[in-house]
Specification:
The chain has helices at about 90-95, 100-115, 150-155, 190-195; strands spanning about 30-40, 55-60, 65-75, 80-85, 120-125, 140-145, 165, 175-180, 185-190, 230, 235-245, 270-275, 285-290, 300-305. The protein is built from 4 helices and 14 strands. The longest helix has 13 residues, at about 100-115. A hairpin with a 2-residue loop joins strand 3 (about 65-75) and strand 4 (about 80-85). The protein has a 6-stranded antiparallel beta barrel. It has 2 domains: about 30-185 and about 235-305, Translation factors (Elongation Factor Tu (Ef-tu), domain 3, Beta Barrel); about 185-230, Ribosomal protein L3, domain 3 (Irregular). The protein is mainly beta.
């Protein structure tokens, strides 16, 4: 049921569920998928290869700094207003008019009188810093942790008008969840879309279709019957991706000819164990893992392939 309806995602800027955490910290970040490579590191799990050097596929995500232009306050599940930056340059980049101060003052007064249950950072990613072809900013909210709404609000205010880097949010060895929109494959049949068996040649004259459309009663086709339709370009969340390495020197990972379909990494980067949904250049949101994961120690990475 979590994978239905299998229709095209509403936006590449995926929706994210933010957990409640008592620790005072930012819970997420955003970047752009660069491509895959393989990494050699010392296995520190309880597997039979513990203590040995192993090789694993890994995904590289470029994470340029993101700009914090305000704070959104919530009471219950409803927004009670925003506190925006007073820097006109930041607000201009965020797409606000030349003089948003009147609106800003009104929302500040409204928030002061309200009891704030939750607060989130209003940020925008700047893909133009990557030089990959995307130019327009991408706005989003980032959840924060804290004991109560007041603590969260004060913590958020300390970031307004500043750039946020990934090293201020995560650390090496942590497990995170990735939220992205998968690669679109267009309209596909039931075999590719749902993995049903191909019928034998003499079955009904058709081979790549489902054997039955359902029962006689109720006499209609249920939505659960595998049929042709949109495949891919769905929002997906993958849990517990381990951060193998974060760095600020792109030359450590850039191949001599750049990454296929992407080019060269020019900003901070993060290397995640395993694969990540979506094609290269796709916006990927990173969130502190909502399910507990073992480990957390910084991995000993000995080699990152650059060929």
């Amino acid at each position: 049921m979590a994978h239905r309806p299998r229709k095209r995602a509403y936006s590449q800027n995926a929706r994210v569920y933010w957990q409640d955490l008592p620790d005072k910290r930012v819970l997420g970040f955003a970047g752009y998928k660069v491509g895959m490579t393989h990494v050699a590191y010392v296995d520190d799990t309880e597997s039979p290869t513990k203590g040995q050097e192993i090789v694993s596929p890994a995904t590289i995500i470029e994470v340029p700094p993101i700009m914090v232009y305000g704070v959104r306050c919530y009471r219950g599940n409803n927004s009670v207003g925003d506190i925006l930056s007073t820097d006109k340059k930041v607000l201009g980049l965020a797409g606000f008019g030349e003089n948003p101060s009147a609106k800003q003052k009104g929302e500040r007064a409204k928030i002061d009188d309200a009891t704030v249950d939750d607060a989130r950072l209003l940020v925008f990613a700047m893909p133009a810093k990557t030089k990959m072809g995307k130019k327009h900013i991408e706005k989003m909210e980032l959840g924060v942790g804290g004991k109560d709404g007041k603590e969260k609000l004060e913590f958020c205010k300390s970031f307004i008008g500043k750039e946020l880097r990934i090293s201020e949010v995560f650390k090496n060895g942590e497990h995170i969840d990735v939220v992205s929109v998968s690669i679109g494959k267009g309209w596909q049949g039931a075999v590719k879309r749902f993995g049903i068996s191909i019928q034998r040649r003499k079955a009904t004259g058709k081979r790549r279709h489902v054997g039955t459309l359902g029962q006689w009663h109720p006499a209609y086709v249920l939505y659960t019957v595998p049929q042709a339709g949109q495949t891919g370009y769905h929002q997906r969340t993958e849990m517990n991706k381990r951060i193998l390495k974060m760095g600020q020197k792109p030359e450590e990972i850039n191949p001599s000819a750049g990454f296929a379909g992407y080019g060269f990494v020019r900003n901070d980067y993060v290397v995640l164990k395993g694969s990540v949904p979506g094609p290269v250049k796709r916006l990927v949101k990173l969130r502190l893992a909502v399910r507990s994961a073992p480990g957390g120690k910084e991995p000993q990475v000995s080699y990152i392939a650059t060929r």
